[in-house]
Amino acid sequence: MRKLRDAALWSVLFALGMLVVSWAAWDRAGAAGENLAWYISRAAGLSAYAILWLNMALGLVIRQGAHTGALPRWRLYDLHQFTAPVALGLLTLHVLALLWDRYVGFTLPQVLIPMLSIYRPLAVALGIVALYLLLLITLSSYLERRLGHKTWRVLHYLSIPAYLLSLYHSVLSGTDSGAFWAVGMYLASFMILVYLANRRFRFLSDRKCNSKLAGGI
């Protein structure tokens, strides 16, 4: 529970700190910065996607028995756990900045309840569901002992749809999705995870085969 409280505290403080800085910058910018909230939300959303991708990649590397180089596996595991609440903090900033945006004029129900948004409702709904899944997965990681390993593992597999939904949300709702750099980032990040997932499944398959062979000797 202490780790959970610490992670939640740092995530909230990070998001609040970013919001205070953003609000001060927006207030000083005046009329020239009327779209600053939109830019902040986009930047936070892209950063959250990058951190979520890193979290997924670390999880796949740790669990497939791959060589981790100079960093010991326990450090990668800690980084894997740390990146989840950081992503949640960035997503909090992403959502709250939308409430400050003067162009679209999101309301709180529209950013919390799927299909209520007037702006690209399907894309926003995918992002909302991904947010809730990520929150559930992160909480379950800190409550593994209470939930039991089997329940935790089932919940942890929700990270796959959570990532895919976040990717679809980013592509469908992002105003930069058509840019060359954005297409390259989304495609490269997705393909890297596909490669790591393939290695993970091959590792599990080989280990299962080796266990059967050892049992038959």
Automatic annotation (TrEMBL):
Keyword Mitochondrion: no
Location of this chain's protein in the cell: Membrane
Source species, domain of life: Bacteria
Primary subcellular site in the record, as a coarse category: membrane
Keyword list, A-Z: Membrane, Transmembrane, Transmembrane helix
Residue ranges occupied by any Ferric oxidoreductase domain in the UniProt entry: 46-166
Leader sequence residues: none
Keyword S-adenosyl-L-methionine: no
Membrane topology recorded in Swiss-Prot or TrEMBL: Multi-pass membrane protein
Protein name: Ferric reductase domain protein protein transmembrane component domain protein
Organism name: Thermobaculum terrenum (strain ATCC BAA-798 / CCMEE 7001 / YNP1)
